[in-house]
Amino acid sequence: MKPLKQELQDRGLLYQFSDEKIFELLDKWWKNFYCGFDPSADSLHLGNFIWFMVALHIMRRGNNYTALTWGATGMIWDPGGKTSERVFLWMEVLDKNIAAISKQISNMLDKLSTFTWEKYSYRFVNNKDFYKDMWILDFLREVWKFITVNTMMNKEAVKRRIEDPNQSISYTEFSYQLLQGYDYTKMFHEDQMILQIGWQDQWWNLVTWTEIIRKKYDWEAFALTWPLITDSTGKKFWKSEWNAMFLDEAKTSPYFIYQYFMNTTDEDISRYMKMLTLIETEQIDEIVEKHFEKPENREWQKILAFKVVEIVHWTKMAELCEKISNFMFGDDDKIEILKKLPEDELKIFQKSMWGFDYIGENFFEMIVKSELENSNSNARQSVNAGAISINGNKITDSKYDFTNDFINGKFLLLQKWKKNFKLILK
Questions:
Q1: Nearest residue to 35 via CA among 22, 49, 46
Q2: I need a labelling partner for 364 at 20 to 30 A (CA). Which of 68, 142, 250, 277 fits?
Q3: Sign for the pseudo-dihedral over CA of 84, 88, 93, 96
Q4: Are 333 and 399 in contact (CB under 8 A)?
Q5: How would you label 224-237 residue by residue, b for 16+ Cβ within 10 Å and e otherwise?
Q6: In angstroms, rounded to a whole number, what is the distance separating the alpha carbons of residues 222 and 19?
Q7: What does the pLDDT look like over 118-138, one tens digit per residue?
Q8: What distance in Å separates the CA atoms of residue 319 and residue 341, rounded to the nearest whole number?
Q9: Per-block average pLDDT, block size 10, for the chain (426 residues)?
Q10: Euclidean distance between CA atoms 379 and 360, whole angstroms
């Protein structure tokens, strides 16, 4: 296994670090590091997948990962990147989100272990527990005395909110950085936590508190960041036409994630492959070069899509997404493929095609409900034009009775023109 610094650099996952010494320490194993996660939703999204991969590379070298759940800081929120104060969430909602995300992280790491044959050392800590028995006077003595208001005011996100006459910042959000800093100092003192990792725009917070640890304990702690990731057009890579791509399959179908990476441009394929998979970088360089001999085959987009879904949702789901993609864009007999699917896979196919369950709709209502058309009159026009098929058979009769077309009494395949499919289950 490569030295960690070289690994992260080769994969484009290293932006800044506070001291070269951290890599020497991490390469020797059994060091403690952490990264916090935002519980504003009940699922991580593809943007979070970057920090998961950075943490994974550090864990693969035998180090111990603490996933810090922001039960306390999640009640306040970081003012960074915001032009106004975010709406506070109830504690019950935060707890629910934290439990869901913790389960996601555990599931990904446990599934990874089954095909990498590696064991990962990790735990979850809720920073709400750091403050539940603390008085405000304790906080002032233990935290505030080590950082000046001048320093806090100079933070770019704070300065921007204060200087803009159309914006403002509450004392609550202003104090967020103190809580984040206390997280690090407490875990350093009690758990020998030597490293915090984060996005490049978190650099100020990270290095400020390594300095506080030095002042308070006369000891070294470290910070490391990865770059903000955009595609070749400058767009955040985890954004799609459906907005954020969540890692919870109930919120974003694994097939949508698979298809998102199938649509990766040739300019981005090598970068994404290095950042988001565990394939060795030298192998990626070698085979991507061959990819450009016949880029129209999209062989490496297929591998990228498969590998990402495999890490997030396991091998079986990646294989199923591959099967759905072949179904949607291949030339095999689609009805025969559907006939062979077990009921649980049929349901996944349905969701991936944005299909629905039949509850008695008439022909035009079914077409509109499928969103192949937006009105009954447009549905009628499409039928008259020969654009609509059921189970591969073109329908031109606007009074056609389709109720006997459910194959095996279970499904029918509604289609508009050549590539628009909707699976209807009964």
A1: 49
A2: 250
A3: positive
A4: no
A5: bbbeebebeeeeeb
A6: 7
A7: 999 999 999 999 988 888 888
A8: 13
A9: 96 96 95 92 91 96 95 68 57 91 95 92 94 85 79 79 81 78 90 95 85 88 93 72 80 93 91 95 87 84 95 95 93 92 94 93 94 94 95 93 94 93 95
A10: 17
Closest CA relative to residue 353, chosen from 414, 406, 419, 422: 422
Q: What is the pLDDT of residue 242?
A: 54
Can you tell me the distance from the alpha carbon of 26 to that of 63, in angstroms, rounded to the nearest whole number?
7
Secondary structure of residue 240 in the 3-state scheme = strand
What is the pLDDT at residue 139?
Answer: 82
Element (H, E) at 6: helix 4-10
d(CA 157, CA 201): 10
pLDDT (tens digit, 9 = 90+) per residue, 131-181?
888 888 888 887 777 777 887 787 777 888 888 888 888 777 787 778 778
State the number of CA atoms in the 13 A half-sphere of 3 facing the CB: 9
Burial of 209 (0-12, 13-18, 19+ CB in 10 A): buried
3-state secondary structure of 290: helix
218: Cβ–Cβ under 8 A, 6 or more apart, which residues? none
Find the Cα–Cα–Cα–Cα dihedral 411, 414, 415, 421, rounded to 10°.
-60
Any idea which residue has 């565990």 for tokens?
278
pLDDT of residue 181: 80
Helix (H, G, I), strand (E, B) or coil at 296: helix
Strand spans (E) along 47-151: 64-69, 121-126
| The two structure tokens encoding residue 389 | 């098929």
| Interatomic CA distance for residues 154 and 207, integer angstroms | 14
pTM score, two decimals?
A: 0.88
pLDDT digit string, tens, across residues 47-65: 899 999 999 999 999 999 9
| DSSP code at position 150 | H
Residue 9 CB partners (closer than 8 Å, separation 6+):
none
The candidate with the shortest Cα–Cα distance to 62, out of 16, 25, 18, 14, is: 25
| Per-residue CA distances from 255 to 144, 283, 351 (Å) | 48, 26, 9
Bridge partners, 152 (sequence order): none
Q: Number of C-alpha atoms within 13 angstroms, CB side, residue 118?
A: 17
Q: Which residue has the tokens 């505030």?
A: 144
* Start-end of H helices in 192-314: 203-217, 254-262, 266-276, 281-291, 299-313
Map tokens 């209807």 to a residue: 424
d(CA 401, CA 383): 13
* DSSP state letter for 206: H
Task: Name the residue type at position 73.
Answer: T
